[in-house]
Write a sequence for this structure.
C-alpha cells in the first residue's frame, strides 16, 4: 500500500473539466461550459466556468482534466468494514434455503464474526480491512463511515475503532467512526439483554468516547437484536455525552425505530425497508437522512422495497451506501450500489448521485466539508472517463475513475 503522505499535492488549477449536475451548488455555469477548480493548500478556492476564472488564479500550476466529468468525492456513509474472517459459508447455507434470521439463531450471523474479530489482534484486523478499503477508494470514495459492533466487549470494540482511525490516517481518507456496541447480544450475555445494554451505556460508550474513538452512536433495533426501549437507553447515553445518533431501523420489521431516532435528532435511519408513514413524517420533521442499502436488500433477496416514492414526496434526503459487512452485504463498490439503487429501488440518476455525495455527507454530519465542490471546502473530487453522469450508475463492474483528489492530494491517477 502507498502511504497517503506520498501522494502528490493537488494544488493548482484544474481545467478542461465538465461539472456533473449539482456537483458545485454555488457555481453558475452552462451544462456544456468548460469548468475549472482552483486548489491551494489542499482547499478549493474557486469553482466555476473556466472563462470566468478570477485573474488571481491564472498563474497556478495547471492540471489538464482532458474533458473529464467531475463530481464531488464519493461518501460511503454506512459500513462495517473492520472485522475478522468472512462468512461465505452462510452464503452457502442461505443458498440451501436458510433465512438470515435462521442462520443468526443457529449461532451464525453476527456472532460468528464476533468470534473471529475477538480472536484477531489490531494489526491482523488492519491487514484484513485495508485491501477492502482500497477497493472502495478505487471507486472514488473520499469519506467513509466505519462502525464497531463485532467486538461487543470494551477491549474488542476499542480494537475495531482504533483500526478504523488508523485506516483513515494511513490511506488519507476521512473516516467517521460509529460505536455500534448494541449490534447483537454477545453469547456471554445470553438471556441478559438488559445487563448488556447497561454495560454498553455505562462503561463501553463513555470509555471509548473519552478516548476520542466515537463520532456517532448506532443501534441495531430489530426483533433479532435490541428493542425500542433498549435503543432509547443507548440514545440517552449518547445524548449525555453530546454524541449524535443513527439507527439500523425497520430492516426486517417495523419496530417504530425511525420515529424514536428522529426524536433524538438522528443523523440518519438506515435500511428502512419497513418504514411506516409516521416514520417518514418524523424523519422529515427532524431532517434525518434515509440511508438506502441495496446491497443488503439484494443479498437477502428481500422483497419489501423501502418506501421510495413516499420518501421522495416528503422531501426526505436519500443516501445510498454499501453497508459493507460480512453477513448481508459483502459489497466493495459504491458505484455498483448506485446501479442497484436505480435498478432495484427506482432512484433516478441524479438521486443516486446525490445519494453518494451530498446526502451521504449529511448522514455523517460532514456537509460542511464533503459531498460538494465548493469554495472553502477541502479538495475532494473525482474526474471520470465518462461522457454522461448517467454512466456512473449505468455500467456495473466498471471503474471509470480517471483521477481522485482526496484530502487535497492526488490519490489516484494524475496528469495524462
Ligand atoms: N444490519 C446489517 O445489515 C448488518 N448489521 C446490521 O445491523 C449485518 C451484519 C452481519 O450480518 O454481520
Ligand atoms: Fe449495517
Amino acid at each position: 500500500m502507498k502511504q497517503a503522505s506520498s501522494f502528490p499535492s493537488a494544488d493548482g488549477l484544474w481545467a478542461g473539466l465538465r461539472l456533473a449536475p449539482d456537483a458545485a451548488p454555488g457555481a453558475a455555469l452552462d451544462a456544456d461550459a468548460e469548468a475549472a477548480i482552483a486548489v491551494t493548500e489542499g482547499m478549493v478556492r474557486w469553482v466555476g466556468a473556466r472563462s470566468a476564472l478570477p485573474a488571481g488564479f491564472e498563474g497556478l500550476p495547471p492540471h489538464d482534466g482532458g474533458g473529464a466529468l467531475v463530481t464531488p468525492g464519493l461518501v460511503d456513509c454506512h459500513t462495517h468494514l473492520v472485522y475478522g474472517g468472512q462468512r461465505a459459508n452462510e452464503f452457502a447455507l442461505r443458498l440451501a434455503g436458510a433465512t438470515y434470521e435462521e442462520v443468526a439463531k443457529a449461532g451464525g450471523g453476527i456472532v460468528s464474526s464476533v468470534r473471529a474479530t475477538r480472536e484477531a489482534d489490531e494489526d491482523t484486523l488492519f491487514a484484513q480491512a485495508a485491501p477492502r478499503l482500497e477497493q472502495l477508494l478505487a471507486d472514488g470514495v473520499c469519506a467513509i463511515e466505519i462502525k464497531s459492533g463485532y467486538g461487543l466487549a470494551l477491549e474488542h470494540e476499542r480494537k475495531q475503532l482504533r483500526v478504523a482511525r488508523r485506516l483513515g490516517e494511513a490511506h488519507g481518507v476521512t473516516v467517521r467512526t460509529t460505536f455500534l456496541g448494541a449490534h447483537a447480544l454477545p453469547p456471554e450475555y445470553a438471556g441478559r439483554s438488559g445487563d448488556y445494554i447497561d454495560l454498553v451505556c455505562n462503561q463501553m460508550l463513555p470509555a471509548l468516547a473519552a478516548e476520542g474513538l466515537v463520532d456517532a452512536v448506532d443501534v441495531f433495533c430489530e426483533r433479532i437484536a435490541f428493542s425500542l426501549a433498549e435503543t432509547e437507553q443507548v440514545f440517552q447515553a449518547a445524548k449525555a455525552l453530546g454524541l449524535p445518533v443513527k439507527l439500523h431501523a425497520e430492516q426486517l420489521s417495523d419496530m417504530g425505530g425511525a420515529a424514536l431516532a428522529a426524536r433524538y435528532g438522528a443523523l440518519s435511519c438506515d435500511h428502512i425497508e419497513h418504514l411506516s408513514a409516521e416514520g417518514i413524517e418524523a424523519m422529515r420533521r427532524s431532517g434525518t437522512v434515509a440511508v438506502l442499502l441495496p446491497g443488503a436488500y439484494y443479498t437477502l433477496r428481500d422483497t419489501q422495497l423501502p418506501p421510495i416514492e413516499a420518501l421522495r414526496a416528503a422531501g426526505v434526503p436519500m443516501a445510498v451506501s454499501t453497508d459493507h459487512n460480512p453477513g448481508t452485504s459483502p459489497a466493495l463498490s459504491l458505484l455498483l450500489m448506485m446501479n442497484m439503487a436505480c435498478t432495484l429501488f427506482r432512484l433516478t440518476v441524479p438521486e443516486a448521485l446525490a445519494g453518494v455525495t451530498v446526502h451521504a455527507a449529511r448522514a455523517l454530519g460532514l456537509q460542511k466539508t464533503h459531498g460538494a465542490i465548493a469554495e472553502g471546502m477541502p479538495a475532494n473530487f473525482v474526474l471520470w472517463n465518462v461522457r454522461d453522469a448517467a454512466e456512473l450508475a449505468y455500467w456495473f463492474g466498471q471503474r471509470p475513475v480517471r483521477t481522485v483528489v482526496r484530502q487535497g492530494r492526488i490519490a489516484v491517477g494524475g496528469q495524462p
Remarks:
- The first strand starts at residue 12 and ends at 19.
- Residues 149 and 181 are 5 Å apart (CA to CA).
- The two ends are 22 Å apart (CA to CA).
- The longest helix spans residues 154-171.
